[in-house]
Amino acid sequence: MFYISICPICGMDLTGAKCGGCGYDLSTKNEGSIEIGPKATNEKIKNNEDFILLDVRHPNENELTKIENSVLIPLNELPNRLNELDKKKQIICYCRTGNRSLHSARFLRQKGFTDAKNLKGGIHLWHDEVDSSKVKY
To answer: Where are the domains of the chain?
Structure first.
């Protein structure tokens, strides 16, 4: 039984586990190591690793606080902007607390971005573990 009645990606009404709009399958559970912590992500940044840090929050949230060099694609725009992302690169998605970004990482994996990950705890945990100057809201 699914308790979500609206697709967390595109906002369309759900009639089952799979969205008829964007195709997101909420029943996916076999996702391997989909989460990465703030400290490990920060090490990737410090080491100048080639990956995409994807902010899936709303523009007003991004204006309030963001992780430097991240790319903003709000979650509801993601299905129509997949062409802006490179399937060959690792993509680390983040939001405020890690819920929206978990859905975005799952969605990206379903669309062929096999190395999409969720920044565990979002910008809140980033604040706690990496950079306390980031606004917690």
So the answer is: 35-129
The Cα 48–Cα 41 span in angstroms is 11
The amino acid occupying position 101 is: S
Token duo for residue 65: 């606080």
1-25 residue pLDDT tens = 445 689 999 999 887 888 999 999 9
Superfamily name and number for 35-129 = Rhodanese-like domain (3.40.250.10)
Tokens 């990950």 correspond to 117
- Both tokens assigned to 20: 């008829």
Is the pTM for the entire model greater than 0.85? yes
CB 58 within 8 A of CB 73: no
